Amino acid sequence: MENLTESAPNPEFLALNCIDLSSSDVNLSVSLLKQACLDTGFFYIVNHGITEEFMDEVFAQSKRLFDLPLSDKMKLLRNENHRGYTPILDELLDPENQIRVGDYKEGYYIGIEGKNPGDDSDGERQFYGPNVLPAEDLLPGWSKIMKKFHTQALEVARVVARLIAIALGLEKDFFDKPEMLGEPIAILRLLHYEGQISDPAKGIFGAGAHTDYGLITLLATDENLGLQICKDKDAKPQIWKYVAPLKGAFVVNLGDMLERWSNCIFKSTLHRVLITGQDRYSIAFFVEPNPDCLVECLPTCKSDENPPKFLPIRCGTYLSQRYKDTHVDLETYKK
C-alpha cells in the first residue's frame, strides 16, 4: 500500500470493524457487525474461506478480459437480462452531479444460469438466464474460474446474512428461505477503472455516488485507493472518507432492501469511487433476494412508535427500475 499517499495526498480513512468469519465467538461477530451496521453500513470480513491465491487468480482473469480489444469486448455486450460487458460511460449513478457524463469504468456482469429456480415454465424470467461468456479459445479457463468464484462468494454471503439476521433479532436462518437467499439473485460484477482522473467539481467520477440495491454487497479490491463513503448523505457539505484496501478481505456494505427490511435501523450507505490516475480493479458480488420476494418491514423492526417507513415492494420490481434508471438504453449501441 506504499502508493496510497502518492495517488491521493493525505487521504482521510474511515475506520471499519473487521469480522473474522472463522471465529467461534458468534456473539462477538454479531456485536461487531451490528455496531458497523448502525454506524457506517460498511465492514470488513476476513477468513471467509476463499483463499488469497484464488482471489488473486480471479483478479488476474479479470484483467485478461479487460485487456481484450474493445471490438472483442463489444461482441460480449450486456443483454437485457444484465449479462455481459458494460463499456465506459454505460452507467450513470449520480445524474445530479455527473452532469450527464457516466461512470469512467467498464464492467462485466455474471449471474445465475438457467431459468428462475422453481419455475417449471419453458420461458426464462428476469435476472436469470444464460451468461454471456467469452469463447474458450479466446480466454481459456476463464468461465470456469468465474463460475467457481460465484459459487464460493454466494456461500460467504449466506454466512454474513445469518449474522445480520441474528443482529436484527431474527432466527439465524431467516434469510435462507427459498424466496430470499435460498434462490437468490446473485450477480458477480468485474470492474475496471481506467486512469481517468476523477474531478468531483467537473462531475467526473470512477463511479458516481450511489447506494447498492439489494441485501448486501461483497467487494474485493486491488491495492489502489478509490472507494469513499459518506455516512450522512443529508449533511451539507457531504463528508467523504476513503476505505483502505485490505488484502484478501471483502468489504461488505448494506443495500437498499436491507434498509427497507430493517425500517432504516440499518442503512444503505452512500458511496462512490474516485480515481487518481492509476488503473484500478475491483470485484463486486451483489446479493439480492428472489425477484418474487416481497420486501417489507421486519416484525422486529417496527412498533407503534416506529411504524414502517416504506410500502412493501417486490424485489424484481425495485431492481428493474434501478437498472433502467442507471444504464444506457441498449438501443443506443445499435445506432
From TrEMBL:
Top-level taxon: Eukaryota
Domain spans labelled Fe2OG dioxygenase: 184-289
Family matches, as SUPFAM superfamilies: Clavaminate synthase-like
Entries under InterPro entries matching the protein: DIOX_N, IPNS-like_FE2OG_OXY, IPNS-like_sf, Oxoglu/Fe-dep_dioxygenase_dom
Molecular function as annotated in GO: dioxygenase activity; metal ion binding
The keyword Nucleotide-binding is annotated on this UniProt entry: no
Keywords recorded for this protein, A-Z: Iron, Metal-binding, Oxidoreductase
Transmembrane segments: none
Gene3D superfamilies: B-lactam Antibiotic, Isopenicillin N Synthase, Chain (2.60.120.330)
N-terminal signal peptide: none
Family in the record: Belongs to the iron/ascorbate-dependent oxidoreductase family.
Official protein name in the record: 2-oxoglutarate-Fe(II) type oxidoreductase hxnY isoform X1
The species this protein was found in: Cucumis melo
Gene designation per UniProt: LOC103498063
